[in-house]
Each structure stands twice: as C-alpha cells, then as structure tokens.
Amino acid sequence: MTTSKDEKSDDVLGLSGTSDALGNGLDEVSPTVFSRRDILRLGAALGLTTLGGGAFWGVLEAMAAKGPATEWFKSVCRYCGTGCGVQLGMSDGEVIEVRGDEDAHNQGKLCIKGSLLTVLNQLPGRLTTPQIRRDGTLRKASWDEAMALVAERFKQAIREAGPSSVAYFGSGQLYIEESYTANKLFKAGLGSNNVDGNPRLCMASAAVGYTKTYGKDEPPGAFEDIDHAEVFFIIGANPAECHQPVFERILSRRRQHPNTVIVCVDPRRTMTAEYADIHISPRPGSDLLLLWSMANVIVHDGFADRDFVSAHVSMQNVDGSAADWGALERFLDGYAPSKVSERLGVPAARIRELAQLFATRPATMSLWTMGLNQRVDGVALNTTMNALHLLTGQIGRPGATPLSLTGQGNACGGVRDTGSLAHLLPHGRLITNPAHRAEMEQHWGVPAGRIAPTPGLDALELFRAMEDGRVRCLLNVCTNPGQSMPNLGRYEEAMKRAFVVVVDAFEDTATSRFADVVLPAAMWIEKEGVYGQTERRYQLLEKLLEAPGEARSDLEILVDFAERMGLADLISARTPAEVWEEYRNLSSHSKYDFSGMTRERLREAHGLQWPCPTEDHPGTARRYIPGDPFVREGRDIDFYGTPDHKARIFLTPYEDRSDPVDADFPLILTTGRIVEQWHTGTMTDRIPEIREATPRGHFELCEGDAVPLGLQDGDRALVTSRYGALEGPVKVSRSPRPGTLFAAFYDAHWLVNKVVTDRCDPTSKQPDYKTTAVHVEKVRT
Ligand code: SF4
C-alpha cells in the first residue's frame, strides 16, 4: 500500500515520523531500543557503545545524502519473530528510509537491525545466477541446466531408493505461500514426509508444549497483554537484546505502573537481567526444578486457584494416567524449595518469593524463548511453564498469559501453521492421524493413501540419514544448517555425502560450501508474501524491488521444480495471491480459521490475528475467552482445543539428561544471539556498520573461572567438548554465571556449533544448545 508522502518528510533524516520513546528524560527510555530519533537524541549521551558509535552515524549521514523519500510503503521487518511493522521510504527505486510503523504492534519502535533495513537489498555477495559444482568448484549455469540436474537427481533417488530418500529443509524466513507449497509438493506430491527445517532447532518444544497443554499450537495471548501485566516472568529469554520493541513495551508498562515487577531467570546476567527488578541465576539445565518448586509453594501455601483448576484443567501423571489434586500434591512434595535450593543454586526464600509474586499479583505474563526451548527437557519446561499459569488462574485475563517469543520472522505462520515439519500437516493436523491425512488428501485432490502414514525425519535424523545414505537428495531453502546445526562437524560430513541443493540470496554461506547446486533467490521485498509472527499476526509484504540478476522468488523455484517432477497439476496455484487463496480457504476447515483475511484486507491492515473467520471479523488477540469465535456461548474461558474443553497439566518429573559435567568437561557452554546480529549473520554480518561494530566470535566467561585457567581478556582459549573443539579469543565479563561460558553463533568463520551437543528433547526432537559440557584451556603462543 502506498501511503501519502509523510507530512514530516522534509526532515531529511526521517526523525520526526518516529515515535517518541524518550518521554521527558533519559531515565525513561531503554537505551536498547531505538527509533532513529532516539538514536540521534541519545547517541551522544550513551556513546552508542553497542553500535560502534561513529559507524552508525555514517549510515544516517549516507541516508540523509540521498534526500527525502518520495513514496512510503507499509511492510514488515525481514528478521525476527517480533515481526515489527515498518514504513519504507523509497526514491528512484531504492529504499532510502525506514521507520517503525506507528500503527503496527511495535508502536513505531525498531531495533538496530530493523533500523538498518535500508541497506539490506544492496548488500554485497548476492547470488545472481544458478551455479553447479563441477570439478569441486561452483560454476555459473543456466536456470534450465541447474533445474534439469536437480530434477534428474531427485527422480533418480526416488526411483532407486523410494520417496523417503529425498528431503526438504526450510525455515521460518520463507513466506507462508512458499512453505505451504513446499510442504504440499513433498508430502502430497513426491510422497516424502521428510519436510523439516530451522524451526525444529528453534521452537519445536514450544509448539509441542502448547499443543499438549491446550490441544492447539500457538499462544493464548498477545503482545497487547504487556500493557496489562503487573509481573513479567521472563525465563530463558533476553528480549532486551533479541526482541527489543517487546522489551521496550515492558519497560514502558513499568514506567507507567511502578508496581510492575520484571523477573529475569537466566544463568547469564544479560542485558534483560540488568533491567529486571529480580534476577535469578539458576544452574544451567536446572530450571525445571525451579518451576516445579514454585508450583510446590503455590499449591502448599494456598496460592493456587483451585476453582479454576477444577473447572478448566485436567492433570496427567507421567505414565499418561489421570491425576487428581492429591497426586499433584504428592508429586510436588519432592520439589519443596528446601529440597531443590542447592541443586538449583537459588535460595529457598527466593523461590517462595517468586511463587507468591507469580500467583498473587493481578496479572502475570510469562515470556520465554530459546532458553526453555533448546533443551533436552524443552517440552517439560514448556508444559510446566503453562502449568504455572493454569494452577494460578493467571490466564485468560488481560495481562495474564504465557507467551513464547519466537526467533524467525515467519516460523509461526510459515512453518508451524502450514505444518511444514516432518510430523505435521496444515493447521495442527498430524501425519500419524489417518483422518487428518484423509482430510488433506481430499483438500489437495490426491488419491487416498498418497500421504505416507509415518512422520518424516526431524532435523537431526534427517542429517543422520544423509550420513548413512538413507537420504540422497536435499533441497535446502532459505536457511543455513551448515552453521546452525549442533555437533556441526558430524553434519558437515553428512552434507558431503548427499546431493545438496541450496536456495539462497547470498553466495558463500556455511551451507553452500557443501552444495552441488546453488540457486539464487529473491529476498524480502523483492517478492510478495505473508509473514505470521509470534502472536498469530499475519502481515503482507509487497514486492517493491526487482531481484538482482537472474534471482527468482522461492515460490517460482518450487513451481519450476514441481513441473519438472511431473506435479504441475498438484501445484496449480502459481502466484503468491493464488496460493494464499487456496491456503486461506483451507484454514476454514480448522480452528486456525483465517479465511476472513483476504489479500485486500492484509494489504490495508497493520496485521491481523487469527482466528479471523469472516471478512468483517476484526481478528483475535486473545484465544479461549469471549471474543474468540470458537468459544462457546456463555463461557468465560473455553479450552476448545481438547475433546473435554480442558487444558492439561503434565506431572513430568525433573531428570538431569543434559550433557554430563564431570572432571574432563567441568564447565558448561551456552550459546545465543547478541543485539546487533541476527541468527547466522548471513545478512547482518554483511552490513559493514554492524560487522565493524561487533566483535568476532569469542568465548565469554567470568573472572572466577578465567583466573584459575590463567586466562585474561584477549587471551585465546581452546574449548573442547565431547563433540568437537574450537579455539577463540576470550572475553572476561561479569555476565556469565560461574561455571559457564557464553558464545554467540553469528560468525560464519568461527563455527561455535562444532562444539555444541546434539542431545535433544525426546518428544520435540529439538536440540539442546544451552548445556554443553566443555573443557577450557589457555592457548599459549
Ligand atoms: Fe523488530 Fe525483530 Fe526487526 Fe528488530 S529484528 S526491528 S525486533 S522484527
């Protein structure tokens, strides 16, 4: 949608159109969240230490030199699951300004990554032609040559070894239309359920946690709840760096309501912990003990909402049998604060204080992300986090809700909702459910029995199957497993053994190093499609730019592939709008119903949240309460996702299944992101200003661990685990908990995932990136 030229665009830096987060003084703003106006007003005072100061001023000056934008377009940030709305100012076919969209859920705020979207389409290293590896080197090829080779190899594999010998590995960065098409093509067309991708590494445990608890994936609440909560229970997340507009909204709530309490549970003293009122630093891997111990206090000290539980909740023992209140009490006896305090490394009084706070304040909102999801007990952590809300009745009221934050921009809409994981079909249907398969076969117009009855291979198994030859061909689209997989050395070898096709916007990624064919993809606003972010909000991104060279949209590539595989009739929707119509109509057969989201509505709206079953429905911010179209008449709350309309609490005991810490591997490595860089850095680390401002890959540890090892800031250390070893510089800081190291994973030339364990949660199959036992020694030069 073209908006009128902004009335304030005579301000060449685009400062006036941004929201004023400053209020009346520096103490009222988070220095971690930036409108561009904030940056300019705060820059000198704060020194822009996280941004590299002068480099960022250079970007702003360069943008100013291009003059004011002549047209403005509504769009969405390319990066994370916050899904910030942006206004893009264009002139002469170039994006020259970006502003946070005041009318979107991010309320005009952007983080530094979003503020630098202007340069995204001009970054160096774009792929402009297909390439085929010949004599060990990727060489330029025509589209016809490359696609013919891809089709030939996939057909050969299917002919010789069956459909399960081919696989698709995608991501939450593709548009909904693209992931939906790939999923349909592989499962209903090629007959392979080997459809998985980065979201398995990122939030599979959250998806399983919601589904087990409420019968349906995706959160009950929304970002809007932030404006009503009094307690923010942030666990295993660092929104001050990774979801900054969300955290700014939390800080804004605290500024307006001084009774608000922000709790941060994280072994590291992160930027979020710095801003929190209470920081709890449990031993890595032990936080299920904390959650059950809080439940112990809630139940035994009379803070539970028993009326709510008896009306709306059913409980299950670990063996699947029904549990009653007495069974819950007996189960919780083992988690008395005094019994778990030492193992947790948290004083018992602190646990009691937290439990009381969580249960008794008018509205408690919990937020979490990879710290709970990327764990061997990720599903138990997710179901237990939801259980705390159910036990206390902290759900279904404004501000009282669990909300799992997400990492990739379209992982919820594009992958979870489309069912583009090995065990899923669209809208919560399961591969293992015969009725669900039959339903999808009918919708997709394929013969009964076409969809294979067993789940495909999850990410780890998929790469192991390439290792032993069960999977011969991989179509890898818009993701970078050559950098993001754990135990990377093993899976690099696996990629060498298969025929690997990489579809990417950029050349020379850690994955394309193993590619047999590389296909150049259009990115972001070089194509049209829908993104669905954390809170079930779908937003349309329009095509505003042409892709460079011969690059094509991922949808065009999938359609071409389908035709060459003889599946043109199945993949008959060829444009984003045609695919959306098919998919939108399909949703009306489910509780995900967003059939009211026409393309035209999405073009105008600043995001719509499903369920949204009719074209005049406003969308649904909060599920399971009146206003949600599926809630039965006269019910205050209705967990309609389960047959008995009750949510579930699972009495899953804590078991220490993390990578064992012992005398050989006495420290724990945990990995994550930093404020400026996004995911594996294929985009952000090519932005010169960001690259200049961020340190190269390094290990961070506290002084108490560094000194006995003879390590000082700037020294080099060799970090060895049971999986691999990596040498790198050391930064000594007060952030990591004693006994732990932290490393970010964005640096493509320093692959820290070579050290990380590939242990995973047994149900979600999500790997544990947070608790790898390691040995550290100083490298003497
Ligand atoms: Fe918003 Fe995430 Fe983009 Fe930052 S990276 S502007 S938080 S969507």
What is the structure about, briefly put?
The protein is α/β, with parallel strands linked by helices and 781 residues long. It contains 27 helices and 30 strands.
Q: What does this 3D model show about the protein?
A:
- The chain has 781 residues and is an alpha/beta fold.
- It folds into four domains: 7-119, ADC-like domains (N-terminal domain of TfIIb); 131-202 and 410-574, Rossmann fold; 204-404, Dimethylsulfoxide Reductase, domain 2; 667-778, Barwin-like endoglucanases (Beta Barrel).
- 32% of the residues lie in helices and 17% in strands.
- It is built from 27 helices and 30 strands.
- Strands 6-5-20-19-18-7-8 form a seven-stranded mixed sheet, sandwiched between helices. It has a six-stranded mixed beta barrel with strand order 25-29-26-28-27-30.
- Strand 16 (424-425) and strand 17 form a beta hairpin.
- It is globular and about 70 Å long.
- The termini are far apart.
- Mean pLDDT is 91; it is low at 1-55.
- The chain binds iron/sulfur cluster.
